Predict the structure.
Amino acid sequence: MKRRDFLRQIGLGSMVAALQPGRLYAVTPAPSGEPPLERLIVVFLRGGVDGLNVVIPCEEDEYFDRRPNLAIPAPGQTDGALKLDEQFALNPALEALMPFWRDKTLAFVHATGLADGVRSHFSAQATLESGLGGTATAVDGWMNRLLGQLPGATYPTRAVSFGASTLPLILTGSSAAASQPLGTAAEQMHPTDTPDIARVFDRLYAGQDDLSNAYQAGKMARQRLMADLRQDMAAADANAPHPGNHFAAETDRVAHLIRGTSRIQLAFMALGGWDTHIAQGAGEGQLAHKLRPLGAGLARLIQNLGPDYAHTTLVVLSEFGRTVAENGNGGTDHGHGGVMWLMGGQLKGGRVYGKWPGLEPDALFERRDLAVTTDYREVLWQVLQHRFRLQPEALSRILPGFTPAPEALPRLFG
Amino acid sequence: MMGQRIAGLSILLWITAASFNINAGEEQSRQITHTLNRLSFGPLPGQIAHLQAQGIAAYIEEQLHPERITEDPDLIRRLDGLTTLRLPPQTLYEQSLFNHAADSSPRQAMRGFNRALAEAQEARLIRAVASKRQLLEVMVDFWFNHFNVFANKGGRVKLVVGDYEERVIRPHALGRFETLLKATARHPAMLVYLDNWLNTAPRTGKGKGRYRGLNENYARELLELHTLGVEGGYTQQDVTELARILTGWGLCEGPLRKNAPASGFCFDPKRHDSGDKILLGRRVQGGGPEEVEATLTALARHPATARHISYKLAQAFVADEPPASLVTALSRVFVDSDGDIRTVLQALFASEAFRDETAYQAKFKSPYRYLVSVARTTGAAVAAPRPLLNTLRLMNMPLYQCLTPDGYKNTRAAWLSPDSLLQRIDFATRVGRDAFRTALPNRIPATTLETSQQAVLSPRTRSALSGLEPAHKTAVLLASPEFLHY
């Protein structure tokens, strides 16, 4: 596919359908003895999470000066941040992630994001999901294009979006991908699961048009996921208590669905509510109340992945960071540079990567926001290159128009 | 001999003419179906025949003037029972505060908020299904999403979301864009949802409590979503300047609560930044609320706004990717008519692009349009809104609860996915099994439904229908490609 074929400017047209004809293949379980499946889980924090209060530049006076009510106290103080290294500390609401920092499977890339992006949620999210730069957007998402570059025949449950019942842009494109609701909707019996109804609709949707493809892919994915869920419920550990929060319960389910013999290779989850214009809070408050379950959920997810963690990479990202200074309402406004979180068995973790631009007024983007010194695609490029062993040609199809800058980032994976 | 030949010829002519008439009749009923699909939430049983008599042009003209259409008395009676819809924002707010203080139970107050929201949802749903002013209902949905507010932002938005639709969106849905824009800007639902009630000039000495500085949330969305569009040529500096213009534009809190108008809108000069501003290269002299009024006027008349709104209308009524020539033509009408929505729609419905066969069935229904069209096509009444509202939630489109200010989309890419298709099949199957008989009573029988759809059914759907029992017939008809599109 040529770049101009799928690039488009936002607003000039809508996206093509999620599914193209003729992309259905039989689901084949992995024969034993095959190398373990390499997996990628992307968690998108929609709304622009305040990266400066996730990984805190605790040595910067500017940080404390410009956030009189929102700054997290330095490590060692009451309710202080958790020390990561000489320069940075972690929001204490993410304490559940510290064991992974210590065993060096957690890393952060700071001052990263869309180098010449805009402060619009919709525009920035669409660009990040497209895997492009500036304000460009594509009709397909980079995870879907990754699906097209993976070796072997693809199948409807190879890539799954958890949570929403419609596919997000990041997984939209010419390869079939499934969406799996979470919560109570996940286990319901559906009329289409009964043979007489299935027969009727199998006949109606037997064609090669986009609706037929959606029907066939949806049915196959639902059967497959239901089978996995049933198998999982029978397993002893499925009855383990949840840590009492919704997200952690959902990540349990995700972990159960993607580990072991499951053929899910790419997973995507989006979480909302990070747009903290008002009452963001410091030790407690909106942000802490979102971060705490996220940290606990990710920790549970990894715990549940068990040995599969060795071949799994987690990327947590958001469309932009927030203003360095707090606003008049105890919140922060849309900003620029943010922080990406990485977790994975093969990661060279225990480090905060990225060139730190500082918070001096002159160092800021438009004199108000953390600058972007590392394009977010540098990080994705390395994940794709080192974990999925893709060649530069394939990488350029997934992240078109992007060339990694030498020395931008040291090697992230062992 | 001669007579026989003439008779034979005339029979031949008669047959030709008859088949021509059948084709013309089918073509006409497809045109009528298309018109009803776009100007309404789908044909009612028998409505296609009705339009054959009335004529398409007359129907369009009638729908463009909803004030001339006599509303269904049953619908009016039901709406009259929804009492919170008659109360203005400040009254609703004071009452909820009063109730809250009197028995000091936050749960009681929350019940009041939820009741107001539930009544707004019921009003919207029963009107969408039963109102004779269908184009108005289609445009209410369009403008609500364009000027979206999220009811769950807090109790205060839940309380007034019904009023927002009733007194801001509905009266201006076919009126002038500028009037509509200005009405949204003053409503407490918008002021709370996009935080402008907190937006305060920095360093005014009033930096107390929650009013401690600029909040540019509303300013940004006003430019990006409500008027110019994301490519409308504004900068971050413009956003900040607009936020300064909008300081003090908010609610009647503190000392302003005494003598607060029923609208719940107040301008607080003490929190306003009275300095001069530069917006989009033009100087705005520091003053008071007239700065906002003048700015909204300028934004409503900006050519980028004309283009942005025209694109969205063309996308909603013609195709997900509307022809550029149509957008250009509509932009011109928008500018020439000073943003008169009715005039722009008139031009849209008269356009080649709208009437062209390629536009037939080109759109994929959103969950909202899907559910409303199920009720209309099956001739059912909405006796209980709750099961339908729950279904909308399940389909990712809870009513008045789109979190993001861009509102719900109406494109195929936004709503067609394997899972969403299976959900519609599930729903259609349940309707066929009469699982919604209390919520949607008086449904027409499957065979009547089949006859009414006959003109638009594809050979594949017809073949899938043959020999089915009635329950399955209904399921297939309501989950067929022809019914999922409009």
